[in-house]
Write the structure tokens for this entry.
Amino acid sequence: MGQKVLITGGTGLIGKRLTELLLQRGYEVAILSRSKKDIPSVKVYEYDTEKDYIENGALANTSHLIHLAGAGVADERWTEKRKKVILDSRIKPVELINRKLKAEQISLKSFISASGSSFYGEDSGDKRNTEKDPPNSDFLSFVTVEWEKAADIIADTGVRTVKLRTGIVLSEDGGALAKMAQPARFGFGAPLGSGKQWVSWIHLDDLCRMYIEALENETWEGAYNAIAPGPVTNAHLTKLICNALNRPQWLPNVPAFALRLVFGEMANVVLGSSYVINERIANDTDFKYQFTDPELALQDILGKK
């Protein structure tokens, strides 16, 4: 058995595919979950941040920790209670793990943490954001800043730490694409708001390969914009989805006010513009994308169905 990789949030969209790829490469994979699950070839351990509890054996012999846990930002309307859940679900697991690592005197080789391109703001307009740009001050930016501060808790112990600021992950198994593709299948695909807002995207497989590269390559450290080289507008993405599904796009744009009426502040997730540049991936690493063309990425995902 190879080195042990422990994943928080390993039963989610990214975690499932990442687990498959890690197992293929000979790693031992374990998952930290809030509830017991039965997953082939993977040991699942329970944890509870409120009870300061991690199941015995979870951290033992762990070489690499990947932190994916976090409540979905678009799963529910943003009440103050929901906002607290979104924030705490990203931060408290890291704080708990850090305490347990110290108590058990376990030294990690690497810590790879999810982060978000929302670091630069829910709506940054046409501004081209690189890793050199500062964070914004809106809710999702605040969450992402605190998320990365939590990762720094482990980085401060001397563990090589990587933060992957991720945009829209293209996969039909969940996330934004699955929600956009559903109405498009029935001929109801339509741009949201003006349709001019930028979408920074990445194919699920490229993102998972990026996590593995960050884990294996000791030159990776700090924050990286984990997105494909070319952002697209919401209108163009909608058109490509309809094309991949061989469905027409004939409806007018969904008005922004209608989305805000239904989703409240959470509508910022789809109405905001995010043009993020993968500057460090392009210039500081040798990572090779499989999908840099959104049309080919969508054909790969949706054209199979």
The two ends are 35 Å apart (CA to CA). The domain at 4-302 is CATH 3.40.50.720 (Rossmann fold). The chain has one domain: 4-302.
